[in-house]
Amino acid sequence: MNLKKTLLFASILLINFGGLAIGGWFTGPGVQSEWYAALPKAPWTPPGWVFGAAWTLVMVGFSVFGYVILTRAKTKGSRSRWLSWLILSWILNVGWNPLFFRWHLLQWALVEITLLLALTLWLFLCGWKELGGKSAVWSLAPYWAWLMIATSLNAYSLFH
Question: Which residues of the chain have pLDDT under 70?
Fold first, then answer.
């Protein structure tokens, strides 16, 4: 990997992990708050440490996908579209935290995370087509799997 590509990958990692930091800031006292403690929790809610490990794996995978898709997109127009989709995904990812933890809008958080889940599936399917089924598209699988779990946890808290 040349310097330009290395810097691109490092930048993508930094932006994605920066998004996690911003989301953490929006979470505030979050899981230690009285409000969160009083929420109904799904029986499949993982222990707290799993969230940090999962998000680390998710962001590394999402960064790999972003790097590969941006460097292998067939045209400049295609690269621009991919960048737009990746930015939208980043915004939706960061946006869930204030909806859920800061403003306690569980119904809007559920709508938002469902959109993110659908977008991640869309990225996978379009990435499969763009990359000709290359293995890099599978780096999105942890993201999609984790969003399925997170969506189910959000829904459980809202409807129970």
Answer: 1
Structure tokens belonging to residue 127: 């990435």
Cα separation, 92 vs 119, whole angstroms: 9
pTM above 0.90, yes or no: yes
The tens digit of pLDDT for each residue in 75-103 reads 889 999 999 999 999 999 999 999 999 99
- Long-range Cβ contacts of 123-131 (<8 Å, 24+ apart): 123/65, 123/85, 123/86, 123/89, 126/85, 127/65, 127/69, 130/69, 130/72, 130/73, 130/74, 130/78, 130/82, 131/68, 131/69, 131/72
Per-residue pLDDT, 147: 97
Domains of the chain: 3-159 (1.20.1260.100)
Q: Is-contact 158 107, C-beta < 8 A? A: yes
pLDDT at 158: 97
Tokens of 56: 């680390």
Single-letter code of the amino acid located at 40: P
Residue 128, C-beta contacts closer than 8 angstroms, at least 6 positions apart: 137
**CA 14, CA 63: separation in Å to the nearest integer?**
9
